[in-house]
């Protein structure tokens, strides 16, 4: 999730679409934990239905930076046609 949020804040359904194979229940539980840990912020817009947006806090960006580098390195390594 930290990698999905690295570029910009996303609404719940956008996050769900960006993470293949995750259930709504697991996404909600994980987001709740990340908010409690101070890695992600949550904003609820008082609309009907409510629109909930998530983004990285400063701490989340700090923690996510090395994870992003690792993710990018793994993605390059596993991509078709890569040497190695």
UniProtKB/TrEMBL annotation:
Highest rank taxon of the organism: Bacteria
Keywords in alphabetical order: DNA-binding, Transcription, Transcription regulation
InterPro entries (UniProt xref): HTH_HxlR (IPR002577), WH-like_DNA-bd_sf (IPR036388), WH_DNA-bd_sf (IPR036390)
Molecular-function annotations in GO: DNA binding
Domain spans labelled HTH hxlR-type: 1-82
PROSITE patterns according to UniProt: HTH_HXLR
Pfam families xref list: HxlR
Keyword DNA-binding: yes
Keyword Ligase: no
PANTHER family xref list: HTH-TYPE TRANSCRIPTIONAL REGULATOR YODB (PTHR33204:SF37), TRANSCRIPTIONAL REGULATOR, MARR FAMILY (PTHR33204)
Protein name: DNA-binding HxlR family transcriptional regulator
Organism of this sequence: Nocardiopsis terrae
Source taxonomy: Bacteria, Bacillati, Actinomycetota, Actinomycetes, Streptosporangiales
């Amino acid at each position: 999730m930290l990698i999905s949020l690295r570029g910009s804040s996303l609404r719940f359904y956008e996050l769900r679409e960006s993470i293949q194979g995750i259930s709504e229940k697991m996404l909600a539980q994980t987001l709740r934990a990340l908010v409690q840990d101070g890695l992600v912020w949550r904003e609820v817009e008082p609309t009907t239905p409510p629109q909930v947006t998530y983004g990285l806090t400063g701490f989340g960006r700090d923690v996510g930076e090395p994870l992003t580098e690792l993710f990018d390195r793994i993605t390059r390594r596993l991509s078709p046609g890569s040497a190695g």
